[in-house]
Design goal:
5 helices, 11 strands, about 25% strand
Length: about 220
């Protein structure tokens, strides 16, 4: 989208509501741990390209639970069973300024990165949305790069980044890493622009029968 700044990590001053998210981080973490104890298989491969699709950098992670997702919202649809198991997380997500686009957004999930696993450099598809990370289980030797900036997650400390800028993540530890990920509107978009984006995205999705990759890069 034109005129939107390319900012790897956004300043917290634009997202004062993150204080509420962080205040609930311990409860969100308890819900995540509960899900993991109930059934680890509830985490599905985040990368799941069909047979015959060009995989490029996703060869190692395609259809692999080494990068798993426990979906709460997926392409604009509530995953009711999962939300019911995580009421605090569901409440926090309901208050987030997330885009609402039928068949596309919002998206929210617990992201589980297994030990000794790396998510290769990649980019998202639209700067009209930004991505929030809420770190929940963070062993040593984990990191995240956006553009030329590399950071380490700190448990309970959220950040917001532009995923159209090349980014990658790694877990070089011997323990799983887990974070909550969800998308939000870019705060530099006006309400009129958001409505234009919503209408255009849904229309293009209808034309391609819902195949627009709005979620790519999360």
């Amino acid at each position: 989208f034109p005129r939107l700044p390319a900012i790897p990590f956004y300043d917290r001053v634009d997202f004062l509501w993150l204080n509420t998210v962080e205040a609930a981080a311990d409860e969100i973490r308890k819900e995540l741990i509960g899900v993991l104890k109930d059934n680890h298989d509830d985490f599905v491969p985040y990368v799941a390209h069909p047979e015959g699709a060009p995989l490029n950098q996703w060869q190692e992670l395609n259809n692999s639970r080494r990068w798993g997702a426990f979906h709460l919202w997926r392409e604009g649809q509530r995953v009711e069973e999962n939300l019911a198991r995580c009421p605090t997380t569901a409440s926090i997500l309901a208050k987030a300024p997330s885009p609402k686009m039928l068949g596309h957004a919002p998206n929210a999930f617990f992201s589980l990165l297994e030990p000794r696993t790396r998510i290769p450099p990649h980019t998202g598809v639209t700067n009209t949305r930004l991505v929030v990370h809420v770190p929940l289980v963070i062993p040593p030797s984990c990191g995240f790069r956006v553009g030329s900036i590399t950071r380490e997650w700190q448990r309970g400390k959220a950040w917001v980044f532009d995923d159209t800028i090349e980014h990658e993540a790694w877990n070089n530890s011997d323990e799983p890493r887990a974070i909550l990920i969800f998308d939000i509107w870019n705060p530099y978009l006006t309400e009129v622009e958001r409505e234009l984006v919503r209408t255009a995205t849904e229309s293009i999705g209808d034309f391609y029968q819902g195949e627009t990759p709005y979620t790519a890069g999360l």
